[in-house]
């Protein structure tokens, strides 16, 4: 069976799970949130990487159904953790460009928030530059409508688009997420260090939060601390964890 057909079946059979990767305040190591990352546990193949199936799901449009499942599942989990009295945290969910093209995306997200009772201000939506650039006034309106529902908005993979930065002041964005490509070769690569430092300074000047992803080494962390980067996510702190592992290892009773 081709991956496309297996994806279809996997959606019906609930073969997807979410893993959660914690995000920490760089200054004081406080847990500030997590990113929900989808995993496919295929009965035949075991774990299939999202690097393999997300591009196919985007091509076929199946990402719309999968993305909605991810959002609902993350909200259900977040509500469970809140109800269990665990320290409240923001859950970031990746949106695909295909989802942004859905005519009724805003209503669908509103419905998920209502049904799951997950407080909207604990939800963060990660979008990429390429998804919103070139969308003109329609994209500006869409982001304002999303924002009006209550979630925070983050620009994922920031710095990899070749877009004009002018959109930063037109869109109601809360956070820039420095692409891990700029973090990977710190402190060896002078250019990457300049780019990361520039993004951090720009975020500060625009009153946006800034998070670095893919932080794997103490040297990278030291650099990000020196630059006053607000938050960090990466293997240095934790890999993405199952909900059970996440609750046990990361969440604490206040
Ligand atoms: O989780 P991992 O680090 O393997 O992710 C690989 C790629 O898949 C990344 O680009 C990540 O953004 C993407 N990805 C993971 N989970 C989701 C999801 O729920 N929705 C979308 N659209 N992309 C996801
Ligand atoms: O595209 P997006 O930023 O949503 O994807 C995040 C991806 O980065 C996921 O595939 C996640 O598993 C991966 N990731 C998370 N932390 C690290 C890290 O420290 N190093 C590397 N190489 N990848 C990471
Ligand atoms: Mn992401
Ligand atoms: Na990213």
UniProtKB/TrEMBL annotation:
This is cyclic-guanylate-specific phosphodiesterase. Residues 1-254 form the EAL domain.
């Amino acid at each position: 069976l081709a991956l496309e057909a297996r994806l279809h079946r996997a959606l019906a059979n609930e073969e997807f799970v979410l893993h959660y990767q914690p995000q920490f305040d760089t200054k004081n190591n406080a847990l500030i949130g997590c990113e929900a990352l989808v995993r496919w546990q295929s009965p035949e193949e075991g774990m299939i990487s999202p690097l393999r199936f997300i591009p196919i799901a985007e091509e076929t449009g199946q990402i719309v159904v999968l993305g909605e499942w991810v959002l609902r599942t993350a909200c259900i989990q977040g509500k469970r953790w809140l109800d269990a009295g665990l320290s409240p945290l923001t859950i970031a969910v990746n949106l695909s460009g295909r989802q942004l093209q859905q005519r009724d995306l805003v209503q669908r997200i509103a419905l998920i928030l209502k049904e799951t009772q997950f407080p909207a201000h604990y939800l963060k939506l990660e979008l990429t530059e390429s998804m919103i650039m070139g969308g003109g006034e329609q994209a500006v309106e869409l982001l304002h409508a999303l924002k009006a529902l209550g979630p925070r908005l983050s620009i994922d993979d920031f710095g990899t688009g070749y877009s004009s930065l002018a959109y930063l002041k037109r869109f109601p964005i809360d956070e820039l997420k420095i692409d891990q490509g700029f973090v990977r070769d710190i402190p060896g690569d002078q250019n990457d260090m300049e780019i990361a430092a520039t993004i951090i300074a720009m975020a500060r000047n625009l009153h946006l939060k800034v998070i670095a992803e893919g932080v794997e080494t103490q040297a990278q962390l030291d650099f990000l601390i020196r630059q006053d980067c607000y938050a960090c996510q990466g293997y240095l702190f934790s890999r993405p964890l199952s909900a059970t592992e996440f609750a046990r290892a990361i969440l604490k009773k206040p």
